[in-house]
Amino acid sequence: AQSVTQPDIHITVSEGASLELRCNYSYGATPYLFWYVQSPGQGLQLLLKYFSGDTLVQGIKGFEAEFKRSQSSFNLRKPSVHWSDAAEYFCAVGAFTGGGNKLTFGTGTQLKVEL
Amino acid sequence: GAVVSQHPSWVICKSGTSVKIECRSLDFQATTMFWYRQFPKQSLMLMATSNEGSKATYEQGVEKDKFLINHASLTLSTLTVTSAHPEDSSFYICSARDASGSAGELFFGEGSRLTVL
């Protein structure tokens, strides 16, 4: 069974500073990996995804993530954080079953941005 | 991008009543939709996979008689919480896969917050 670990429950960074959110996964085959962002009381928005190919993936809002198979990691990064980036971030690993996508989510990392 | 809409976004009900939550894919057809439950400050837990025209597939530990799922068309899935109790209070989120879109991408609804008194 697949699983996702996000070691950091809360992270606080200053606006303009760089950001890295950690994600480690466990999956028996080549994983499909995702990062989602959730604002309070809202649904999830896809930031980026990795299926295959280039291990450095570019997403929306200036985010990127790097897939490292040897470390079973898919960390999310942003060079310069904006106050509007404050939200909950979820890493997820997907399994394709019978045409559907079964996503397993990590517990999330709450990002706080200090002005 | 594709849009998934949930209704209602917020509902309060009395204990013992049933509540229906709708999930619609507005600009694409979704043969498969997924229902998640999210407790405060926690992750999303997959409850069930909803397949158009067939029975839903429930995750282990989810009561199928309590959480009725119907996927009657390619754009609509409903989740009915039957005989709701306070412990059913939660944030319910649906997602849908665009069968004609990028492989593997799911689109999420805005969520529906259920409060059972």
Low-confidence stretches of chain B: none
What share of the residues of chain A lie within helices? Answer: under 10%
Radius of gyration of chain A, in Å, reads 14 Å
Total strand segments of chain A: 12
Which class best fits the helix and strand makeup of chain A? mainly beta
What ranges of chain A have pLDDT less than 50 throughout 5 or more consecutive residues? none
* Number of helical stretches of at least 4 residues of chain B: 0
What is the mean pLDDT of chain A? 90
| SSE string of chain B | EEEEEEEEEEE
Oligomer: heterodimer
- Assign an overall shape of chain A: globular
Number of strands of chain B: 11
- Residue fraction in strands of chain A: over 45%
Number of helices of chain A: 0
The helix content of chain B is under 10%
Overall shape of chain B:
globular
Most extensive interface, residues per chain? A-B, 24 and 29 residues
Give the structure's gist in a few sentences.
The complex is a heterodimer of chains A (about 120) and B (about 120). By secondary structure, chain A is mainly beta.
Structure description:
The complex is a heterodimer of chains A (115) and B (117). Chain A is mostly beta strands. Chain A is built from no helices and 12 strands. Chain A has strands at residues 3-5, 10-14, 19-21, 24-26, 32-38, 44-50, 56-58, 64-68, 73-78, 87-97, 100-105, 109-114. In chain A, strands 2, 5, 6, 10, 11 and 12 form a 6-stranded mixed sheet that branches. A 4-stranded antiparallel sheet of chain A has the order 3-9-8-7, with no helix packed on it. Chain B is mainly β and 117 residues long. In chain B, strands 2, 4, 5, 6, 9, 10 and 11 form a 7-stranded mixed sheet that branches. Chain B has a 4-stranded antiparallel sheet with strand order 1-3-8-7, with no helix packed on it. The mean pLDDT of chain B is 89. Classes of the chains: A mainly beta (115), B mainly beta (117).
